[in-house]
Amino acid sequence: MSEQIYSQEQASGAQAAHHTEGGHAHITGYGTYILVWLGLVALTAVTVTVAGIHLGSLTLITALVIAAVKTSLVGYHFMHIKYDNAITKIFILVCIVIFLTFWILTFSDLSFR
Amino acid sequence: MTEYTETAEHVHESGHMHRDDEASKMAMWLFLFTELLLFGGMFLLYGAYRFQYADGFKVAAADMNSFIGAVNTIILLTSSLSVALSIGAIQRNQKKLALAMLWFTLLCGLGFLVNKYFEWSHEISNGIYPGGPALQEMSNGQVIYFGLYYVMTGLHGLHVIVGMVFLAVMIAFIQKDIITNSNYQKLENAGLYWHLVDVIWIFLFPLFYLLH
């Protein structure tokens, strides 16, 4: 397990070095970006369609889940988290966890009042 | 004469040696986290009030033009694509394509703001503004909905304007070859900001326009 993490870090370290030197690292194909965009537009259409169906209390959850999927598509591909090294990924994860903690605490308070 | 040139080159090179793209990117992410908490606090307020005034929120949101909202969503998603493509173009040393993509992004940002302008003026002409006649007859839930609507979409609109200024500076940098295929972290950071603005809208759209 620890070996795996070590080799991952080594790999991302090498990537970072390559990035600084050559500047040619991690070139994503234009086609990939366009596919991601098509996915995002399709998910927007799904959000609008689902909102028209009366799902009751599920409406909000569905909208938020779709928005979260769209966000991860934008983050992973457009914001290049895919190519970020481990420390940046952990950095981002910690902030999201802090943010979700606020939400969970607030809503557990509101729901059980 | 020759010595002088060499010294100048040496200084230039050592300047490059001190560049740290990873640190620059991390600083940008740190800034984006503060933005997440700024908007996150307001989303939390939205969530708590929607929980408390579910009916008022639904009545208020019924007046929203979800078509304009959807169009603006597509506009921002497309502008995110063009920013990503412009970074791809710079990586491939396709300067003209990179510039064209950034100009297109600015156009999208402008289109978004124009739609927002029409939307807000429609609501204001209907008397929905602080102290406005329509707002005074509304229930607490509706008033809070519109308060949050103006503050959150307004702050988001400000971010669109800031993002456009940021990207306009990047256009100038590309034209002056300050941003090149081996030195484009500035453009990456501007892109990260623009994508964040897009992500915030991804959440604002269903929460304010699609309540049924």
Approximately how much beta-strand content do the residues of chain B carry? Answer: under 5%
Helicity level of chain B = over 70%
What class would the helix/strand composition of chain B place it in?
mainly alpha
Number of structural units classed as domains of chain B = 1
Parts with pLDDT < 50 across at least 5 consecutive residues of chain B: 1-11
> Which geometry of chain A do the CA atoms define?
flat
Radius of gyration from the alpha-carbon trace of chain A, in angstroms: 19 Å
Shape type of chain B:
elongated
Largest sheet of chain A: none
List the keywords.
heterodimer, A: 113 residues, mainly alpha, 4 helices, B: 212 residues, Four Helix Bundle (Hemerythrin (Met), subunit A), 8 helices, 84% helix, elongated, disordered N terminus
Structure description:
The complex is a heterodimer of chains A (113) and B (212). Chain A is an all-alpha fold and 113 residues long. Chain A has one domain (27-111). Chain A is built from four helices and no strands. Chain A has helices at 2-22, 30-52, 58-78, 86-111. The radius of gyration of chain A is 19 Å and the shape is flat. By secondary structure, chain B is mainly α. Chain B has a single domain, classed as Four Helix Bundle (Hemerythrin (Met), subunit A) (Up-down Bundle), CATH 1.20.120. Chain B has eight helices and no strands. In chain B, helix 2 (21-52) runs antiparallel to helix 7 (140-175). Chain B is elongated, with a radius of gyration of 22 Å. The termini of chain B are far apart. The model of chain B is unreliable at 1-11 (pLDDT under 50). At the A-B interface, helix 1, helix 2, helix 3 and helix 4 of A face helix 2, helix 4 and helix 8 of B.
